[in-house]
Amino acid sequence: MIAHIAAALSLALLAPAWPADTAGTTDAAGTAELLTAQADTLPLPGISVKYQEKAGDPVRLSSYGLGTKSTYLRAKTGNTFARQPALSEAAVSPDAATVAGVPKSYRAGYDSLLLTDRASGQIRRVRTVKKPLAASYISWSRDSKRVALTVEQKSAGQWRTVGFTVVDVVAGTARTVRPAGLDGSADFGWSPGGDLVARFGDGLRTYRASDGATLRTFAGVGPPTGPEDAYSPSGSRLTTWCPARFTQQLCVVNPATGKIASRVAVSPQMLFGWWDESHVIAVMPHQSAYRLAVVDLTSKVTRVLADIPSQTWKANLWLTFHRG
Known about the structure:
Shape: globular
Number of helices: 3
Radius of gyration: 19 Å
Largest sheet: 4 strands, antiparallel
Structural class: mainly beta
């Protein structure tokens, strides 16, 4: 996951800085209200962050970490997070029944995915790729039946994407596919319909999960945002990092037409998916540090979820959410 976060961060840094007069749309009193009103404060161990959660939020923070060095997972019930020392990343399935985790080390020369049943605690290990390949960056299908992993190989000191692995959660099997002509900086996530989506040049491409066949190419719309799902809950909107021809950084694409529908005048460091159909979860620069915020598609910050110290963000902070 760390490589993909770094890549997205580099895209964000290439965009124009957010103008001072639009760096926040709430005044000091409004920000204080957003931070405190009817919110539970969740201290996040290991990263000096306090997350503000309210009853009825459409998504719940389920895991986080710093690069591949530390991973924290939320308890099945309640608000506590525990470190997972053996995992480089972890993500809870959309139905909250299973945790997928990538171990920090190979076993018998193979990378793998650990699947933990949250009800029974049973753990299954599924082999994915053989060393020197590595399979990481967990992406759950919306029906919670499959996990997609991005397969990378180091070349000239740099990790480059060479394919993807799909893990069948019920069967406990894995299939790796290496599509021809793949973008070396691609990372794979699911479309709402069950295809795989990844960066391709100045746009994105969808692939058939079973064999990697190209289904559709969206040219000139910018790469999909990440690391969380770039599709809105309904699937009718898709966020991308705007192509260089635009001054705005965040674009919203209509997946039906493959065209950019709108551009949002914000410059987030990262997007961690959609809050609801008309808001995204963004890391925004704030004074000398950062904030995790809910931002609407008119560029307005409608809620502050957490203040993030500069050193925490620069240590490659990542977060995952699930709905419900």
